[in-house]
Amino acid sequence: MSMTIFYRIYDNLYVNITNKCPCECVFCVRRCSDGVHGSQSLWLDREPDIREIKAEFDRLDLGGLAGIVFCGFGEPMERASDIIELCRYFKSKWSLPIRINTNGLVRLIHPGFDMQDLSEADSVSVSLNADDAEEYLRLTRSRFGLRSYGAMLDFARDAKKYVRVGFSVVGVLEPWRIENCRKIAEEFGVPLRVR
Ligand code: SF4
């Protein structure tokens, strides 16, 4: 356990503010490691509050960074309103592009979430994960059940009105499913990244 809020991977600064997540993906890195790319443990002793996050950000040396990514060891949008506030704060201090990596289930987690707030970030990477609802649920084991897939797609569609959107899938999918995912991404008019 630790309090690693910020960590660097290459030239990006990653922000880890929650370990909560409504999913339990079969491929989640948390199942086999305490961190990523040689980071300290990303399991948090407790969730840092906004004041602590801002204070730690202010102490960072941001030289050489190309961007800020909300990612974390969990689903960052579990703390959606804090993330939006942090986007505003980071931008007021440093003009780096901000990306939110998300499973796209924020409107199931926080039904009142205002999608317009996403415009505080520069881009959102949504985990598409699968080409249909059954496969999605098999892989993610989302606590919201089968409706999760449709909610994630709706999120991506609506998010496009406010922010740049990309999809990602994990390379554990069969090639024909990845091909289907490519078609879905094309229909949405967004890029697909296979990780
Ligand atoms: S949504 Fe992300 S953090 Fe949550 S279980 Fe899946 S891979 Fe892990």
Key features?
seven-stranded mixed sheet; single chain; alpha/beta; globular; 195 residues; binds iron/sulfur cluster; 7 strands
Bound molecules: iron/sulfur cluster
- The number of distinct β-strands equals 7
Describe the sheet with the most strands.
7 strands, mixed
Helix content: 25-40%
Q: Globular, elongated, flat, extended or rod-shaped: what is the shape?
A: globular
- The N- to C-terminal Cα distance equals 27 Å
Mean pLDDT: 95
Query: What class do helices, strands and sheet pairing give?
Result: alpha/beta
Biggest sheet strand order reads 1-2-3-4-5-6-7
Low-pLDDT segments: none
Approximate strand percentage? 15-25%
Order of helices and strands: EEHEHEHEHHEHE
- What radius of gyration results from the CA coordinates? 16 Å
Number of helices: 6
Characterise the protein shown here.
There is one protein chain. The chain is 32% helix and 16% strand. It has 195 residues and is an alpha/beta fold. The longest helix has 14 residues, at 80-93. Strands 1-2-3-4-5-6-7 form a seven-stranded mixed sheet, covered by helices on one side. The protein is built from six helices and seven strands. Bound molecules: iron/sulfur cluster. The site of iron/sulfur cluster has 10 residues, from loops.
